[in-house]
Write a structure and sequence with these properties.
The complex is a heterodimer of chains A (about 450) and B (about 400). Chain A is mostly beta strands and about 450 residues long. Helices cover about 15% and strands about 45% of the residues of chain A. Chain B is globular, with a radius of gyration of 22 Å. The N and C termini of chain B lie far apart (about 65 Å). The chains are: A mainly beta (about 450), B mainly beta (about 400).
């Protein structure tokens, strides 16, 4: 009975088609529950025959299972968008430019039909919440130093150990478009060796530009906004101008690089403390950057006119002699807080010699207060190689400071070991020679810095 | 008998008529596949085709509801356009000339990025959530193999001769080597080892993994540059023996390497420290590390410059590839999200998708000029031009 075979195959196909139809209805029901306004199953285009058989059935079953387990039972996604519209003199609004109409900006809800997985929805909600809150960061550092006097006039520092604990609370919040608020409250406890060694520059830069110890200090509190397509940044409030000026890629951070203040900033800057001020940075994202800043230079002054510190800088990025990138900065400043106006200028250079080694140098000359100052420093920094762990860095540096009738030679070597992303420990070895007439003296200071940040 | 003949000839005539009608219905909409930009629209679930000369949308292929297409690519022979529907778990094959959806094919879970073998015979569809790559034969338009054993496969790179394919595993720190003749995973090439000190930092190394998203080929195809996000390195693979010949440390959290069109440089976008690293491929060392922006999604090359897309800031950062220095920023818009771009074959214009804006921005490389093309579809995620050197996704 050869005629019976086609009839049987037709029946089988019909059974398959019926089952596929049933599964597609189930899928459509679930998609409708998920909120798709025109829920239906995307049918196989190009027509794989419904009678293709069990593979297609298995696929439909699998899709159904995926939907039931992964999809979110939610409304269609809605977002509010900022849109431009055109309104004519009769008050009619158009989405497209029309002659005589005035362009304005409005906001409108938009619905999209994207189906999202549970994880995506949760992540979006978390990111949204994160963007609206005040961000708090914590940075804590403990520095231990020991002074060994090598020569010269005997001081009480010989054989003494010093510990300084520093904790910074950092607050950041978005205020408006391209505008943020930032505050850094720092608490210091303990004593650095500087009180007993009494050098020209600080041997522990954590206390630099802070007037009080063993109590809470407001290190910085400012508002920053960016205008003109975010090329011009204006920061105003209580500032640490060294965060904007005299920067250096290899020697500018007491938390991860050198501990000695002469290898963090240029003493010719003559900034005794942070103060109220403004910094304006024009950054066209080319080779040049232009900066100008002003702040109150004396915290005890009763008015701004008699304690104004003004600073300007030009930065230039170059690649001399086929070397990798180098940053070359020149600055000049004036300060009227002393009886006589004092001026100074300086340069700060960091030049990569290869992907691992960066050379740095600073020079400064002028007056600080009523006395002349001359300063230079130089050194090498190593990163991305010649280290124990990939993110470690280390450096060696030397500085010479001549101020009034005194001069100082200082050298430091450190190795910054990244234990974890948030925890670093770095041994330091400092040498300082203070030439102070009859009180000339030299010290060597082994030290350890333990730094955590969240 | 005569009746049967008449009946048969009648059926033939009917069939011919149907065929003729069919050919009329399927008008040729894209006569030259090199003249269009393909735009993948995630929320309107379609692929839009924009004529490069007129900058008008000349066709659109709807894939189905909630398909959520991710990346679009044209076969090297120009015959088909394909995309993976991330939410539908299917691959979609479109006839380029007629813009008809020829077939949808079930693949693995959450298909995203894809690639064609150079001879257009095979379409490899990565399924990152299924940890597999589906191999589709482009002659039969059927799945012929599923390559398992991968870890969040994101991108596939074929050698120029088509003999091997290299799969970046973002959920691991290795590149998979596939024998294209058998479509089998031959080898895993580790890009680098986690530092010994990593055991002190479980939160960083176990909380989330950012491995290898892509292996980018050198101009001659001999070497591959595979960036590893967690390790902050680029491994240089010699495809002759499939070994890493050098590990180059770059910035933090590099997403992937992008090759300059002259082959002299590879650029990684380092979202961890918001820099780019420019690797000199002749020396295999970093020639410059330059500041950039957050959330970088891609790099395009045109008119002797590199254009780096910073998704959430609405900026494109520009770099002069002769001096290896910054050359300005282009403000595309405020409160918009930029995705990826493709460059035309003349290396002059880039077509940048802006998802939240439902627009494409045409950037002229020589002048940094920008032109907006609005309403290309909902949530455009990426663009593609046949034979472009900058066809990629994110």
């Amino acid at each position: 009975m050869p005629g019976m075979r086609p009839a049987s195959a037709t029946d089988d196909r019909q059974v398959l088609v019926d089952r596929i139809d049933m599964l597609e209805r189930r899928l459509a029901d679930i998609e409708a529950k998920l909120g798709s306004p025109q829920a239906q199953v995307a049918t196989t285009a190009g027509g794989e025959s419904a009678a293709a058989g069990s593979p297609q059935l298995a696929e439909l079953d699998r899709r159904l299972s995926d939907l039931e387990t992964n999809a979110v039972l939610s409304e269609p996604k809605t977002t509010v968008k900022r849109i431009e519209v055109w309104t004519d003199k009769n008050g009619n609004q158009s989405d497209e430019p029309i002659p005589g109409a005035v362009k304005s900006v409005t906001y409108q809800r938009e619905t999209t039909a994207r189906r999202q997985a549970i994880s995506e929805v949760i992540n979006e909600a978390l990111e949204d919440a994160e963007s609206k809150r005040v961000h708090i960061g914590v940075s804590s550092t403990l520095t231990l130093q020991n002074a060994r006097q090598l020569s010269g006039f005997r001081t009480p520092a010989n054989g003494h150990s010093y510990a300084l604990a520093s904790a910074d609370l950092l607050f950041t919040a978005g205020l408006a478009q391209n505008t943020i608020f930032f505050a850094d409250v720092v608490g210091l406890s303990g004593n650095p060796p500087d009180n007993e060694i009494n050098g020209l520059t600080l041997l522990n830069s954590y206390t630099a530009r802070l007037s009080r110890q063993n109590e809470l200090n407001l290190r910085e509190a400012w508002i920053r906004t960016e205008i003109f397509n975010q090329t011009l940044g204006i920061t105003a409030g209580r500032l640490d101008l060294t965060n904007f000026f005299d920067r250096n890629a290899a020697a500018n951070d007491e938390q991860t690089q050198f501990l000695s203040d002469a290898l963090v900033n240029n003493p010719a800057l003559g900034l005794a403390s942070n103060g109220a001020g403004v910094a304006v940075v024009y950054e066209p994202y080319s080779s040049f950057t232009f900066k100008i800043g002003a702040q109150q230079s004396n915290p005890l002054a009763t008015n701004l006119s008699e304690s104004t510190f003004v600073l300007a800088e030009v930065d230039y990025l170059m690649r001399p002699f086929g070397l990798p990138e180098g940053n070359y900065r020149i600055w000049a400043r004036t300060d009227n807080s002393a009886r006589k106006r004092s001026n100074a200028f300086g340069v700060s250079i960091d030049q990569k010699l290869n992907p691992i080694v960066t050379a740095f140098a600073r020079y400064g000359s002028g007056r600080v207060g009523l006395d002349n100052i001359q300063f230079y420093s130089a050194g090498l920094s190593f990163q991305n190689g010649w280290v124990f762990n990939p993110e470690d860095n280390w450096g060696i540096g030397y500085s010479r400071t001549k101020f009034a009738n005194r001069d100082e030679d200082l050298a430091e070597i450190f190795y910054n070991l990244h234990l974890t992303e948030r925890l670093r420990v770095s041994p330091h070895l400092q040498y300082v020679h203070e030439n102070d007439g009859p009180a000339t003296r030299a010290f060597i200071l082994p030290g350890l810095r333990l730094q955590a940040s969240f | 008998m005569l009746k049967a003949r008449y009946l048969a000839s009648g059926l033939v005539a009917l069939a011919c008529g149907l065929l003729a009608g069919s050919s009329i219905a399927q008008d040729v909409k894209i006569p030259d596949p090199t003249k269009v930009v393909m735009i993948v629209d995630r929320d309107s679930n379609d692929i839009a085709f924009m004529d490069i000369a007129s900058q008008k949308i000349v066709g659109r292929v709807f894939l189905g509801k909630n398909v959520n297409p991710h990346m679009v690519m044209m076969s090297p022979d120009g015959r088909y356009v394909v995309t993976g529907g991330t939410r539908a778990n299917k691959a979609y094959i479109i006839d380029t000339r007629t813009l008809t959806l020829v077939k949808s094919i079930p693949v693995g879970i959450a298909p995203e990025h894809l690639s064609f073998s150079p001879d257009s015979k095979f379409y490899y569809q990565g399924n990152p959530e299924g940890d597999s790559v589906t191999v589709i034969d482009m002659t039969s338009l059927k799945v012929i193999k599923t390559i398992n054993g991968l870890a969040e496969p994101l991108n596939v790179t074929f050698t120029p001769d088509g003999s091997k394919a290299y799969i970046g595993n973002y959920g691991a720190h290795w590149v998979g080597v596939v024998d294209v003749a058998r479509h089998e995973l031959l080898k895993k090439i580790p890009i680098g080892a986690a530092p010994g000190i990593a055991k002190l930092d479980p939160q960083r190394y176990l909380g989330e993994i950012k491995g290898v998203s892509n292996a980018s080929p050198s101009k001659d195809g001999r070497y591959l540059y595979a960036a590893d996000g967690d390790l902050g390195v680029v491994g240089v693979i010699d495809t002759r023996d499939d070994k890493v010949i050098k590990v180059i440390r770059v910035g933090k959290d590099p997403w992937r390497a992008y090759m300059s069109h002259d082959g002299n440089y590879a650029i990684t976008v380092n979202n961890g420290d918001e820099t780019i690293s420019i690797i000199d491929t002749r020396k295999n060392e970093v020639a410059a590390t330059l500041p950039a922006g957050p959330d970088m999604t891609g790099v395009n090359f045109a008119a002797g410059k590199a254009f780096v897309i910073s998704s959430t800031t609405g900026f494109v950062f520009v770099y002069d590839m002769k001096t290896l220095k910054p050359a300005g920023r282009i403000k595309i818009g405020t409160n918009i999200r930029l995705e990826t771009a493709t460059t035309d074959t003349a290396d002059q214009k880039m077509y940048l998708a802006a998802s939240t804006d439902h627009s494409i921005y045409v950037i002229t490389g020589a002048t940094n000029g920008v032109q907006k093309i609005a309403n290309v579809g909902l949530y455009p995620w990426g663009t593609h031009i046949m034979d472009s050197k900058d066809n990629y996704c994110h």
